């Protein structure tokens, strides 16, 4: 627990598939594929990975010019690579932006996340392919994020960080006689055990019972007195009529 962090420092497919990073068994086949995969980053990718920003969830109509217009406000850009399909040439909805200075990179990472570009809320993070040890991409069962509909959620990234594990000690219920006799010594100052509570309840019930009887008796006498008054009024009316 001392070295716990919401963002993964190394990529472990098994931990990435767990909401708090504590799973011991894979719960979907994609995690198995990621654990067995041996991924080597694309050697054809150039540029400084520590100055590169990953931008995802882009509108498919967003162009390199639009990205340069938006992200150049954070600092000088060295290169923009909008990933496109090799066959159709259409955008795949994500890009990589390399800055000239680390200060510009950090500012864009802080301020550009969830920015709306062309009616799409974008996601911004550091490049992980060449900087995070053990990285496995999404197409091999790894990555971070994911959708609930796919059933392949991944945790430990900026979009969906780990939740802090809750470790509860194994506690036995002393109410049923478990544990040592010393631990079952319940009564303390200001507290009462269940036996004392039951005795007090019985006493209070005995005290309340005569009060209820008196109230019922009072209610009966009142009703009798009211009925007598009604009968006497009825006799008076009959005498007047005569």
TrEMBL record:
Keyword entries, A-Z: Nucleus, RNA-binding
Question: A biological process (GO) annotation for this entry?
Answer: mRNA splicing, via spliceosome
One GO location term (cellular component):
U12-type spliceosomal complex
- Every RRM domain range: 51-129
Pfam families per record: RRM_1 (PF00076)
**Compositionally biased spans, kind Basic and acidic residues:** 147-162, 180-242
Single GO MF annotation: snRNA binding
The compartments listed are: Nucleus
Quote the InterPro entries the UniProt record gives. Nucleotide-bd_a/b_plait_sf, RBD_domain_sf, RRM_dom, snRNP35_RRM, U1_U11-U12_snRNP_70-35kDa
Keyword Zinc recorded: no
The family database entries (CDD domains) matched by this protein are listed as: RRM_snRNP35
Chain residue ranges for the region called Disordered: 147-242
Q: What is this protein called?
A: U11/U12 small nuclear ribonucleoprotein 35 kDa protein
